[in-house]
Specification:
five-stranded parallel β-sheet; homotetramer; nine-stranded mixed β-sheet; Dihydrodipicolinate Reductase, domain 2; alpha/beta; 36% helix; 2 domains; 14 strands
Chain lengths: 382, 382, 382, 382
């Protein structure tokens, strides 16, 4: 089976998330970085391509060149998929053009800046039939999948409540004024969009809650702040939630919790039990049933759901982490692409990845939360 | 030094918290249960007194009898302090009468049903000069005291945010309909007051946050629900907070998080660091400074604040727990009573306990949160 | 029911463990400190008694005086039990005299200096019929009792292996040369006996393993060292074990593991599952069955064994600690004394405490381990 | 920079560790699987090669064919490195032939069956100058490197003691009789060698202790058993250790600790502090200094040593795991190969990987431990 070929937009020298995407795509040896427009600056783009062993004629100076150059190749030599890892403001034009050109797409989150752009992509994807994944990578953790499956199977009884928290501390000072590239674009409305922490990590929290519970947010009441003086976007938020089916919720997203690393955690409560998961210790899912002792569900064991078992590479007790979870999202996208290419349906466990619809829902969520934060009205409909 | 004498109101057979108070008062051998009106039912009250080794002439049939009976004794034979451990609705009349009769008082929380009653007690205590402690017992943990001292000393820099959560699961079903006495009165508005979870545990959370941060809540935006069908009071709540000095906050109180035991936890975030404490693992306080590794502050060590060191009995690594913390509140009250009796001032580390003012603030907080829960207005002033 | 009366030997000003015994005995309000010979120095002994509210005529200048003085009282006014909390070298004469005088006894561990002395006490106790408890206090933890009951009930299948570790760091330097009283006597062969760490904490480890597994050590192969230069007794040891019934074992006792507090932990492995318990987090017992997820057994829950449920005072999630466990040992002794006094048999859950036989076995264990440490022979019979 | 080319021996269909090696080698996109003799059965070998996308002319039927076939190619088209992932008995002939043919080698552990074979490889490597890595993969964890650097820098003071434990439960029953391929060869003396658990995981423990402390074992006193009836090799062991420079040690290796996954943990104790690390939670290294609170050193932070920082891909709080650590060993090997190819010296942080000498020391350790287990002599020299 030939490896898939991908072309990357963004992710050149000094970028962060591009390298993660490349490692995730490489881990299972299913895909090869074949082309790239790795920077908005053409020279840097080409040099970055050379660094990464991309052939010179496929190290493009811009994403438009890349799309054109690849389309000019014979179909069986073309990249299969465009991977977009730029700052948020570039997602929309690249994704739109790539989909219109018939490429499959993997795009980082949040999907785009506005709900209208998001809807346009949803419609385009529906029309063209391409595979479009959005890298809400935390959904790739095996125990997140198991949690989702437990909820879906009714193992928690009737769902009542979800509490999701995503806390970081790295923006507790005005690091964007100190030359930190990652901080610069994330706190710049022109590149990041209307939201800071809420877009960067709040959207992960929304997606994780929706993935595990299978419920979508219907109302929000948000308390949004910019805590660090001089910052242009929000960096701390708490949001009261209502989800489908009468489920209550709470979402916290903060980048000013000093000394905190990447503390994404979720609790899901039903009539028959609760689940507790922390991204910093991802190989453990604690299940506290309504009666009897709590249970430590651990990655890699045969008592886990088929999806959770499929999403793992090594036996229990050998930890898997962030890159492996990220790679699981890629595996789902790759399965979908290969099925598409082979003209076959996906198997029951195949093709698990966050879609363009998930991405669009995330954008709408961000819009409503920011609106709520500025409003005196208690609840805002989503 | 003679042990202090106390008389207990409530806490007879089948009661729960009365036994905890007695253990806490006994632990350090500073006080003796000398009198009691241990039940609202006179026969049971007297039998309970006999169970506990109270002399027959001081096992009273009612709290009124107890106050009268003790007042009738010579001053040097009288109880020093009245301990009130009844359901909430009885706190007010007993406390009022005891203070008016010149007894010192220890009263369980929440103090009383209404802000007006609370204010009356505050005024009475001010006028009579008695010692009046409210058993917000979690403040007695040594590491809670250390956390408070770190904040006060500026070790977290400028305070920004506090997140406090008090989660339980024991009311995830309608246990009040199954003969559970503890659940019955806590979910009965006549006995518990206007609030259920918010009164029972939300008030602990408020007090803990206020104790550690030294800041008081000024505004609330609450999402309050009664999740279990048939219940008469709230059992799940999330409250957005504003505290003095621009500190942001979040408070969660829930009794329907299935499988959860007594998960009271707090995080405090400042410009220079954060603190993390969990009541279920109370001998550890994690401090994450703005830079450098997190620090595990552990009970009993000489690097802790004088107050934290004073509030401990045994060396590091031998866990102390709930009763020890409760006993620390009692020690503070006892110190204050002895100082009063000796006509001397309290030393700098003496007399640490939640006062009637703390109790009154807690009652006002509950009132405002319940009001906010029923309101469409986003923020309510406290 | 009248409280029991106890007289304490040792435990005066500056002592440590005496205060723990008094708190443990006081916690459940079953016994009162009535007499004392609290120091080997008569003046200090009497002053210490006064500090503790002992009547002047029962604040004795020596333990001999105390035994004589109490015997001179009418039987219904006499102390019921003698509590021995002196350095180890004083245990033997006091215990012997107290038993011979017909008093019940609680004695700290290790019981005495030699196996011969221990056997003498065992025989004396058998002859006199007094109650004699040895405060291997860790056996009082509810989850230790539950672990013992699981093993006894066959829930781990056939037992294979036990690993017990007791690590501390407080003797990592020569603190006995710096005026530390606790370190001084523990490292002084005249007072502590032939063993240092092995006697002070290794004997706890042996007792814990024996209590939980119900198996006794039959062979040892020990590696014993004095790591800190200038110290007179061992401070670090590892011992390979054989126990009854083909069970393998390993015991570690160290007081030089820098920065470690009181890290007593045990793992028990059978064909059907394993147990894991740590004294520093005593409210959790992890059970890993042969298949299926690990289970977090937590103190206070109704799924625990009757003995474990009986040994707890407060609901799940409110931690109990060291003093509560210690108090459980006292409760067992008190039950046995009251049964003896009432001339009745103990009920099935009553009278759980380490006996003089446990104490004697501990002394023999220490002797054999020290012998093995000095021997080139691989295995030594116990 | 062209990717390195490797040929794999073993690791075909149904194998386990081969896939881990391939993922580890792929993760950082530094090497490509170019050739393979993936099974001892030629047809399966070729089919496995096809599964993995190896060109048909490089999917060899045997390792001899692979070495010959690759040597027959022009030097600039040849594989750079032979990766040996077969059962242990095949390591020696393949490694020997590969080194003699001038290939660089990566070989799984334990290196070979006998000390004599090991020494032969050491000598051969010295003579030929090839790069030879042994995949003691746990040394690749960033915090293991930081622990090593802390010890080397004297941050623990003078070293006193190391305790290393490697516990598993998967061989608690006779799974080798149930068709489990991984268990079959590991418990078969013909393939595994003289040791079972001691070879499979005890050697990892020895290597981890040696890596972190920089000290080698000089004496052992071992208690070795075959606990599961019918098994042909040891499955449970405890070994008392003496290391260079007066350091004491203890090593536990067990595969019968029911319900345990892959619990490799190590504690290192010095005069100034201790370190605690667990493979199942590898992103945390706890440092307990002689005074002051314990410190949680977490992967990815700038306070870690240069080697630890280099061995990480993603920011703090995004967990890295087993494959990433394994990949770090590969990165070290690849750096050494590229330096060799370029004729340049390795930089100060380059080329970190366990060498053939480490492998040979591991083999000698296994031999001595097994000898000690069968001996009545207390200590055996290594």
């Amino acid at each position: 089976m030939r490896p898939l070929r991908y072309g990357m937009v963004g992710g050149g020298r000094n970028a962060f998330i591009g390298a993660v995407h490349r490692a995730a795509a490489a881990l299972d040896q299913q895909a090869v970085l074949t082309a790239g427009a790795l920077s908005s600056e053409p020279t840097r783009a080409r040099e970055s391509a050379r660094d990464l062993g991309i052939a010179d004629d496929r190290g493009y100076g811009s994403w438009q060149e890349m799309l054109d150059g690849e389309l000019a190749r014979p179909a069986d030599d073309r990249i299969d998929v465009v991977v977009i890892v730029t700052p948020n403001d570039v997602h929309y034009p690249v994704a739109k053009a790539a989909v219109e050109a018939g490429f499959h797409v993997v795009c980082d989150k949040p999907l785009v800046h506005t709900g209208a752009q998001a809807q346009e992509l949803v419609d385009l994807v529906a029309r063209t039939g391409v595979v479009f994944g959005v890298t809400y990578n935390y959904t790739g953790y095996p125990l997140v999948r198991h949690a989702r499956d437990m909820v879906a199977n009714g193992e928690l009884g009737e769902l009542r409540k979800v509490v999701v928290q995503y806390s970081q501390g790295w923006l507790a000072t005005l690091v964007e004024a100190t030359g930190n590239k990652q901080a610069e674009w994330r706190t710049d409305p022109a590149r990041s969009g209307i939201a800071g922490a809420m877009g960067d990590i709040g959207s992960h929290a929304e997606n994780l809650a929706a993935t595990i519970t299978g419920r979508h947010v219907t109302q929000v009441s948000a308390d949004i702040a910019t805590v660090v003086e001089g910052r242009l976007l929000d960096d701390d938020a708490a949001v009261l939630l209502r989800l489908d089916g009468g489920v209550r919720g709470l979402l916290v997203a903060s980048q000013i919790e000093t000394g905190t690393e990447n503390d994404l955690r979720i609790r899901v409560h039903g009539t028959e039990g609760s689940l507790h998961w922390r991204q910093e210790e991802p190989n453990l899912l604690v299940h506290t049933p309504a009666s009897g002792p709590g249970r430590n569900l651990r990655r890699g064991n045969d008592y886990l759901s088929p999806s959770a078992q499929k999403a793992t590479r090594i036996p229990p007790g050998h930890p898997e982490g962030y890159i492996e979870a990220f790679a699981n999202v890629y595996l789902g996208v790759f399965e979908a692409i290969r099925a598409k290419q082979a003209g076959r349906e996906l198997g029951p466990l195949e093709g698990q990845f966050p879609t363009v619809e998930d991405g669009a829902r995330g954008v709408r969520f961000i819009e409503r939360v920011i609106e709520s934060g500025a409003s005196n009205q208690k609840w805002i409909e989503v």
